[in-house]
User: What shape does this take?
Amino acid sequence: MKTTQVIMDTGAHAAALAVKYARVDVVPGYPITPQTSIMEAVASMVENGELHARFIPVEGEHSAMAAAVAASAAGARVFTATSANGLLYMHEVLHMASGGRLPVVMCNVNRGIFAPWTLWADHQDSFSQRDTGWIQYHCSSNQEVFNTLLQAFRVAEQINIPVMVNFDGFAISHCLMPLTLPNQEDIDRFLPTHEPEWRLDPANPSSFSNVTNAPEYAPFRQMLSEDIMSAIPLVKKAAQEYKEATGMWDGDTIDTYRLEDAEVVAFAVNSMAAELRLSIDILRELGIKAGLLRPRLYLPFPTEDIINALPKNAQVMVLDRNYNFGHPGGILAQELKSVCFGRRNDLTIKNRVMGIGGIDLTRRFMADEIRAMIEE
Amino acid sequence: MKSVTKAYRPISWPMKGAGGETGSWRTHRPVVDKNICNKCQICWVYCPEAVIDRHETIIDYRYCKGCGVCALECPTGAISMEMEE
Assistant: This one.
């Protein structure tokens, strides 16, 4: 391990430290619980000179993403963060970032959606932004948040598509865990300065996102769709090269635990998937051959990796922390069924929604749920 | 970090005809009577599409949309709007 330091810190501060390591140029920010502690930490770093960036306090999330889009179009490396309704308020400008092919990187600290108000974690916010053309990671630990953010900047700038790094409010954002900080020089080699081939430049004027007619518009959307799919090999390469640079590894597009011989597979993302490792151990002690498949990448959906990793004839228990309104169950289950249909008909896919609005998902609770699902 | 793929970006560069041959939109055509025109350049100042030559009052009909601003502003009445065929 080529490391300098192990500290105790929260997930939100881990994200802020990654922003410092990435040498971000511009950070537009607006507070929303539970994201606020990221912006507080980044603003402090800018104020005390640790991070040489421009911090732009704006009047709302729509403006935060608009400022991020503008700064990115001017060639800056840009970071912002939000949660829940803040993310929904950005919705229109999220499309502008992806359609404009701007490599903005954003943390979304997952929180349930109004109404009624809740401050606690579920995944309705980020999953409901599925069709905005953003790449989405979901992280299960403070260290993974730090590591993934640095990989996110690299992937975003390589294919000019914005990346959203998601992690659960409070369970990750406000909990202390050990955090290994790599050498800045190793990160500088892994993530060199942002060098866009185009930027808004008064010395060489161009206009951004003009009106197009149908024959011009359609190819833009087609290329965006194709390029998002090409993120998968870059995500893998970024994870591999990050491992070579720092010695740290959280999985690439997916992460697995005791999966090889599993007959029952838990399928979930984010912090609940970290707890699920303990549930798997409980189930194994009871003689149930259980394993875990955790997609780290939600969009693009890592279809081939998932199809290749799932053991033959397994029962796959999809645990969704969101609702797929109009369908029974959750969004992850629908995604998994759609890619397995016709290709992995040996699998039995079952689904439960749990942990909505921050309901605690303990190892015992999830182990019991999986045992009950086996009998269904 | 450098791009590894060529991004298809929605950018346009300032150049003649970047928006296509907008002359096809025209229903009325501005016609300059050279005998009346005193080359005061008022039409050149007002033309929103910059399709009038400054010194010779020649209109580029490939891009003129036929809005009629030049005819309205012309102080000598040298420009008339004639129905397109």
Q: What stands out?
A: The radius of gyration of chain B is 17 Å. The interface with chain A takes residues 1-5, 7-14, 20 of chain B (CB under 8 Å).
